[in-house]
Design brief:
This protein has helices at 16-24, 38-43, 61-69, 83-94, 98-105, 109-118, 132-145, 176-179, 232-235, 238-251, 285-293, 297-305, 311-317, 347-350, 388-399, and strands spanning 9-12, 29-33, 48-50, 75-77, 126-129, 157-161, 171-173, 189-193, 198-207, 210-221, 225-228, 256-265, 271-277, 327-332, 342-343, 355-358, 380-385, 404-405. By secondary structure, the chain is of the alpha+beta class. It has four domains: 9-105, 3-Layer(aba) Sandwich (Rossmann fold); 126-193; 198-324, 2-Layer Sandwich (D-amino Acid Aminotransferase, Chain A, domain 1), CATH 3.30.470; 329-405, Alpha-Beta Complex (Aldehyde Oxidoreductase, domain 3). The strands form four sheets. Strands 13-12-9-10-11-14-17-16 form an eight-stranded antiparallel sheet, sandwiched between helices. Strands 3-2-1-4 form a four-stranded parallel sheet, with helices on both faces.
Length: 416
Amino acid sequence: MNHANKPPVGLLGFCIPAMEAMDSIGRPFVSVVPPEFEPYMQENGLEYVTWDFERVNEKSIQLADDLRAKGVELAIPLYEQTVEWAGALNGEFRNDRKLFTRYLLFRDKAMMKRRAQMHGIRVGVFEEADDRDAVRKFFKRVNTAAVKVDGDIEDPIHLKPLDAAGCKGHRMIRALADIDEIRDDEFPCLLETHLHGQEFSCEVFVHNGKVRFLNITEYVHLGHSNFVPASPALEERRPLIQKAVEELIGAFEIQYGMIHPEFFITPNNVISFGEVAARVPGGHIFELIEKAYDFNPFVAFALAADPATTDAEFEEFFPKIGEHKEFAGCLMVYPRKRVVTRVDVPQRLLEDDYYEKHNLFVPANPKVAEREAFGDHYGTVYFRGDDCERMRDLLREYEEVDFYDSDAPQEEQVTA
C-alpha cells in the first residue's frame, strides 16, 4: 500500500507512532505540534506547523490557512485537546460548519450524554453541578429513588470533569462524607449514576457513516489492564454491540474517522452508553490491536478519516473479524509506595511464555507523584498468547504485584 500520490494529512499533536505510520505507507503528512516540539521536528527534517491547542483567539483560522498552503485537506485528532480543532479544520476544509459543533459534543461529557439520550440511547441519570450542595442533592435523590433505608449500602455516584480525557479527575462518591473532599477547582462537573454490567470499549473505524472495522477491547480492570480482542464470551455478543455502535454513529452523525466509545453490558444483554471519544484511545489499545490483528491502527485512522478512501482499499487493509493472530494484553503499573528507588520484576514473570516485555522505569524523582488519572502510570507490562482466559488470569495476578520498591522508610502506602 503506497499513498505517496495522496495529499498530505494534518496530524494534530506530537505523536511519533502516527508519523511513523504515515511514513510506512508513503503518505505525506504535516504535524501540528506545540512549540516545545519544534526542535525535534527540525532536527529530524519533518514537515510541521507549531500551534498552541490550549489557546483560542481571533487568529485561529490562520491554522487552516497554514495547512492549506502545505496542501493539507484533512486533519486527524491524536489527543483529547485536539478534537475540537479537528472539527474546526475539517469543517473548514469540507465547507461543513456543523462539523465543528458536532465535534464539540465529544469534548463535553454532559452534552455528549444529552445527545445520546435525545436519540433513545440508554445512559445513566446525570446532571451538571456547580458546587458541593448540588452534589449532595444529587446523591440524596439517587439513593432516595433507589429506596435505600437506614443500614443499606448507598449507591455510589460518579463525578467527572466535563471536558477531561478518559478517567482524569474521575471520583466515585460512596458517601456524603466523600463530598467534602471535592476541591473548588473541580467545578463545574458532571454527576452520573453508577452503570452496572461489564465495561468494555470499542475502537470503530468509520467511513461514509459505515462501520469498516470494529474492535472490542475487554477491560479486566478499568485503567489497569485490558486485552484485545475480547474473549469469546463478549465477542459472541458482537451483533448487539455493533447495533449499539451504529446507533451511536447515527446519533452523532459521524461520517469519517474513528471513535472510541465505552459501554456497559449486563448478563441479560442490556447495553448502556458510557461515553465516546473521537481520537486515539488510551490504555495502549492501538499497540494491542496492531499485535493482535497485524495492521497499523494509525494507518486505519487515516484511511477512515479520508473521504477519498475506496471500498477496495478497506477490503485490502482490514482483516476479517476472528482472524486475529493471538490475544494481546497489557498491565499498567502504578507504584503503591510513596517513595520508589528500584524496579523489582518477578523472575516467574520474565520466564512466563505469555510475557512479552515491559517498560517499567525508575523515576528521576523517587517521590511518587499523586495520581490524577489513569494513563499517568509508571510503566507497562505486555503479554501475548493464544488463550484469553490465561491472559485474564495473568493480568489479575500481576496487578497484585508491587513492581516498585525502595530502601527508604515508607511512611504510608499509596492506594492502588
